UniProtKB/TrEMBL annotation, chain A:
The lineage of its organism: Eukaryota, Metazoa, Spiralia, Lophotrochozoa, Mollusca. It comes from the Eukaryota. The keyword Nucleotide-binding applies. PROSITE patterns: ATP_GRASP, BC, BIOTINYL_LIPOYL, CPSASE_2. GO terms for molecular function: ATP binding; metal ion binding; propionyl-CoA carboxylase activity. Keywords: ATP-binding, Biotin, Ligase, Lipid metabolism, Nucleotide-binding. InterPro entries: ATP-grasp (IPR011761), Biotin_carboxylase_complex (IPR050856), Biotin_carboxylation_dom (IPR011764), Biotin_COase_C (IPR005482), Biotin_lipoyl (IPR000089), CPAse_ATP-bd (IPR005479), PCC_BT (IPR041265), Rudment_hybrid_motif (IPR011054). This is Propionyl-CoA carboxylase alpha chain, mitochondrial. Residues 36-106 form the ATP-grasp domain. The keyword Ligase applies. GO terms for biological process: lipid metabolic process. One of its GO terms (cellular component) is mitochondrion. CDD domains: biotinyl_domain.
From TrEMBL, chain B:
This is Propionyl-CoA carboxylase beta chain, mitochondrial. Its EC number is 6.4.1.3. It catalyses: propanoyl-CoA + hydrogencarbonate + ATP = (S)-methylmalonyl-CoA + ADP + phosphate + H(+); butanoyl-CoA + hydrogencarbonate + ATP = (2S)-ethylmalonyl-CoA + ADP + phosphate + H(+). It comes from the Eukaryota. Pathway: Metabolic intermediate metabolism; propanoyl-CoA degradation; succinyl-CoA from propanoyl-CoA: step 1/3. It comes from Elysia crispata. Transmembrane segments: none annotated. One of its GO terms (biological process) is fatty acid catabolic process. Residues 36-292 form the CoA carboxyltransferase N-terminal domain.
């Protein structure tokens, strides 16, 4: 990043590592880079300043380079403006860039000298997007933010956003919800703070990419700093499928689910105005519960202690402390002394919850022994076959429709183009078939799930 | 002597029968003792038999269909170890068609009482494994007994329906049985909550009992409700239709409006029924149940300030308003897929059960039509019968126009909703979020219908009709209608016309709505209002 005044002075504010991208759009940025050494940094900085001087540039700008594994760098482009990810540079250099831009515009000389631009600590920025990370690393999602709480109560966290609870994310703009930036004395601390902030961030009403962001932050290669522009396809060759919990982590989730379920049961019978005859339930202190996480079952033996729940799942014992209150979207629980942040994404009744743990949402159902035994008799529901339908994967506007009823289409032949949020999506037929019906025409707005084309 | 020793050793095992060891008494005493022990054994055996209903083979068939047995369902519905069964030994007394040779203890229904989260409920669970759950005189007798006792003590009745219908062998006896049940349904209506959960077939005359109850829930794919089945329909009208299409869960929850909700399977249905039960008072003398609440009653909801779009023609989802106001965002919606232009359901405010009614601008612009009026009216009357306060959210541009509505009798049916709100004496709080035009403004729990507290949001518009229509009538033939429209909008498309006349009590900031309603409800909890004495009204039907 460079900063130049109108008097020919220029300096560089060091680099930003922006390799983690999807569809050539940046997702996670950090400053400084794990890859550069002091020599390369200086060389790149000098080149950037010389370029700026050569064109008589003033104000702030960013020169983007590609760096190969031998630390050779190649000019890519220059963004002659303030970039989205500028906060991370501000944090490690202590320079208020916008302030400097205003000064330069007024005609003042640069306030700082190159020697006075330090690299102090580490900063990471995660772009929180309103998109579904399970579809091609990010398919836009729209909706109204029914619940939105930024994690600003966590120290060293900065959240730059233009929205608040009740705001609407629409198809007309970029899907960015906020730029979440964290700072630490070193990369490890910045990373940990970012993880905590992502876990504490409550966003309900739109699908967002926090599951992907959070998973990247704990992934081995990222932790080691081994990143490249090919990171996402290399680390998730089959696409992102959500954080895969280890057995222990699953058991922890099961233990917390038991705490939530018991709280639910307890408040269900906590009437304050019962009159007449009612037989008070004998308060229980021991339970055997069955927790289904997805399709896997975990049996838990639970007993109530003085200020905790003792849960045994598998071979592990967990002490669950904290009050799982349904009034707050974020549950601050602890397991065996370690803090575990959990969000109840949805409560479906009948012991069914959707819990956000480590960023990803897991469908969890807690059942008593009896309910579980009887549940074995329930039949699996048939899945509806959708191969004969071309459905809109996201809301948008139909840019073009290239088939009509009666046409014969080949497998993977494009049937229409859907545009939303600066993106054009080509929708194709899943099989060779005749078109039965086209439900929309060019220019129509469609919702997610709308059937655009029906095949025989 | 050998007999004596044998009997004595048996006696030893049953010492608690206090059989005196009068060895001198002789064979007669021993015979007596045997008899007593024999009876005990018979009782135990009969009990074991009753628990198996129609036998293990039939139980397996039931399970294979993905359905639970009558007793399993009760186990799941009721609190653990709380179920007390009545009439386990009752048998049918039909002597025709060889029926006297086939007797099952308990016959085709399991009845009794238990608790759900500590509160008493009476339940009857029809047993499909015994004669297909069909209704006999004995079956009806069992059901009537618990319905009578429920009325006596003031506790709800829950019916788990799974029956093939009348037992043909019983003849007219079963018809009498049904009528006895219907009569009690009617007597209990409005006194104790009655809930029907259809968990299997329910056909013919049997369907009238659920129809008379307050709420009818169904289980998807395995339950059916119809008066005449597909075979008879085909024979008489030559229509080809499957059981599912004619009377399955989807049909009744989205087309006919007979059922109030459908659940995925037996287990899902019963667990959710437990939750639903928590919202209801046990009888009509109890006040709305209050649960300890974590959600602060005075929480401000900033999201509500922006939920109504600035363009008055843009739609928004009324669910967002409702979930923003109630406790912990938990809303039990009734009939979510039928007449979607009106939303009704139960929520809690500061722990107290409330009934919520709201127009849905996303569907038919929130207009009231026949189905919506009837859906709303029944719900409002249920809440009124059982002391549940009603909160109404208004955004209605009027009644839906069109010949289909007029010929369908929108006049009669719209009047039902008006009637229901006017008659209700429970605390009524109304919030006008946006439009409240014409007769629909009056209908939706307005001040004039004894609304206790009426609020308007800043986006509220109370008027006789929209600007365009009004101007075209008032200034008919005039040349500058556009200008006059703008004038009309400025004058009437805001809450002032209503506020200056006291038709709303205040214009409030949306974010404060939850706090204000909670305050109002706690004051209104002691409201006492009665309607003039009458045998009963002549409500439009």
């Amino acid at each position: 990043m460079v900063l130049c005044d109108k008097h020919g002075n220029s300096l560089y504010l060091h680099e930003r590592e922006c390799s983690i991208q999807r569809r050539n759009q940046k997702v996670i940025e950090e400053a400084p880079s794990t890859f550069l050494d002091e020599e390369t940094r200086k060389a790149m900085g000098d080149q950037a300043c010389r370029l700026a001087n050569a064109v008589g540039y003033d104000s702030a700008g960013t020169v983007e380079f590609l760096v190969d594994k031998h630390k050779n760098f190649y000019f890519l482009e220059m963004n002659t403006r303030l970039q989205v990810e500028h906060p991370i540079t501000e944090m490690i250099t202590g320079v208020d860039i916008v302030h400097q831009m205003l000064r330069v515009a007024k005609g003042h000389r640069l306030l700082h000298a190159q020697e006075n631009i330090p690299i102090e600590g580490w900063a990471i920025e995660c772009r929180v997007y309103a998109e579904d990370p399970f579809k091609n690393f990010g398919m836009p999602s729209i909706g109204r933010l029914s619940r939105y709480v930024e994690p600003l109560h966590i120290e060293n966290t900065r959240c730059d956003s233009g929205i608040m609870e009740g705001s609407e994310i629409s198809i007309y703009y970029d899907p960015m919800i906020c730029k979440l930036v964290t700072y630490g004395r070193n990369r490890g601390l910045a990373r940990e703070t970012m993880i905590k902030s992502l876990d504490s961030y409550v966003i309900k009403g739109v699908t967002h990419n926090i599951p992907l962001l959070r998973d990247i932050l704990t992934e081995k290669r990222f932790v080691e700093g081994d990143i490249s522009t090919n990171y996402l396809p290399e680390v998730f060759p089959d696409g992102f499928k959500g954080k895969q919990l280890s057995i222990q982590e699953n058991q922890q989730l099961a233990a917390m689910a038991c705490a939530i379920y018991l709280k639910d049961e307890e408040r269900a019978s906590n009437f304050v105005n019962l009159k007449g005859s009612h037989i008070p339930l004998t308060p229980k202190s021991k339970w055997i519960l069955n927790v289904m996480i997805g399709k896997t079952r975990f049996e838990a033996q639970v007993s109530r202690g003085a200020d905790r729940l003792k849960v045994t799942v598998g071979d592990n014992n967990f002490d669950v402390k904290g009050n799982p209150s349904f009034a707050s979207p974020l549950m601050d629980l602890s397991i065996n002394g370690k803090q575990r942040l959990l969000q109840v994404q949805l409560r479906n009744g009948g012991g069914k919850y959707e819990l956000r743990f480590f960023g990803t949402v897991y469908p969890v159902q807690v059942m008593s022994e009896r309910a579980y035994d009887l549940n074995q008799y329930m039949l699996e529901k048939k899945q509806v076959d959708t191969s004969a339908l071309v459905m809109a994967p996201m809301p948008g506007v139909l840019k073009s429709v290239s088939v009509a009823a009666g046409d014969l289409v080949a497998e993977h032949q494009e049937v229409c183009v859907l545009e939303a949020m600066k993106m054009q999506n080509s929708l194709v037929s899943a099989k060779v078939a005749k078109v039965k019906k086209v439900n929309f025409k060019t220019g129509d707005t469609v919702n997610e799930g709308d059937v655009i084309v029906e095949l025989e | 002597m050998a007999t004596l020793i044998r009997s004595l050793s048996k006696c030893h095992r049953f010492l608690h029968y206090a059989v005196p060891l009068q060895v001198t008494r002789g064979a007669k005493t021993m015979a007596n003792v045997e008899l007593t022990l024999d009876v005990k054994r018979r009782i135990d055996n009969t009990r074991q038999q009753a628990l198996l209903g129609g036998g293990q083979r039939r139980i397996d068939v039931q399970h294979k269909k993905g359905k639970l047995t009558a007793r399993e369902r009760i186990q799941l519905l009721m609190d653990e170890d709380s179920f007390v069964e009545y009439d386990m030994f009752l048998e049918h007394n039909c002597a025709d068609f060889g029926m006297e040779k086939q007797k099952y203890p308990g016959d085709s229904v399991v009845t009794g009482r238990g608790t759900i989260n500590g509160r008493t409920a009476f339940v009857f669970s029809q047993d499909f494994t015994v004669f297909g759950g069909s209704l006999s005189g004995a079956h009806a007798k069992k059901v009537c007994k618990i319905m009578d006792q429920a009325m006596l003590v003031g506790a709800p009745v829950i019916g788990l329906n799974d029956s093939g219908g009348a037992r043909i062998q019983e003849g007219v006896e079963s018809l009498a049985g049904y009528a006895d049940i219907f009569q009690r349904n009617v007597e209990s209506s409005g006194v104790i909550p009655q809930i029907s959960m259809i968990m299997g077939p329910c056909a013919g005359g049997a369907v009238y009992s659920p129809a008379l109850t307050d709420f009818t829930f169904m289980v998807k794919d395995t339950s059916y409700l119809f008066i005449t089945g597909p075979d008879v329909v085909k024979a008489v009208t030559n229509e080809d239709v499957t059981q599912e299409e004619l009377g399955g869960a989807k049909t009744h929850t989205s087309v006919s409006g007979v059922a109030h909700k459908a659940f995925e399977n037996d287990v899902d249905a019963l667990l959710n029924l437990r939750e639903f039960f928590n919202y209801l008072p046990l009888n009509n003398t109890e006040s709305s149940p209050v649960r300890a609440c974590d959600d602060p009653w005075d929480r401000l909801v900033p999201g509500l300030d922006t939920v109504v779009p600035l363009e008055s023609t843009a739609a928004y989802d009324m669910h967002d308003v409702i979930t923003g106001i109630i406790d912990e965002q938990e809303f039990f919606e009734i009939m979510p897929t039928y007449a979607r232009n009106i939303i009704v359901g139960f929520g809690r405010m500061n722990g107290r059960t409330v009934g919520i009614v709201g127009n849905q601008p996303k569907v038919a612009a929130g207009c009231l039509d026949i189905n919506a009026s009837v859906k709303g009216a029944r719900f409002v009357r249920f809440c009124d019968a059982f002391n549940i306060p009603i909160i109404t959210f208004v955004d209605v541009p009027g009644f839906l126009p069109g010949t289909s509505q007029e010929y369908g009798g929108i006049i009669r049916h719209g009047a039902k909703l008006l009637y229901a709100f006017a008659e209700a004496t429970v605390p009524k709080v109304t919030i006008i979020t946006r439009k409240a035009y014409g007769g629909a403004y009056d209908v939706m729990s307005s001040k004039h219908l004894r609304g206790d507290i009426n609020y308007a949001w800043p986006t509220a518009e109370v008027a006789v009709m929209g600007a365009k229509g009004a101007v075209s009538i008032i200034f008919r033939g005039s040349k500058n209608q556009v200008e006059q429209e703008a004038e009309y909008v400025e004058k009437f498309a805001n809450p002032f016309p209503a506020a200056v006349r006291g038709f709303v009590d205040d214009i409030i900031e949306p974010r404060t709505t939850r706090m204000r309603i909670n305050k109002d409800l706690s004051v209104l909890a002691d409201k006492k209002l009665k309607n003039p004495w009458k045998k009963h009204s002549n409500m439009p039907l």
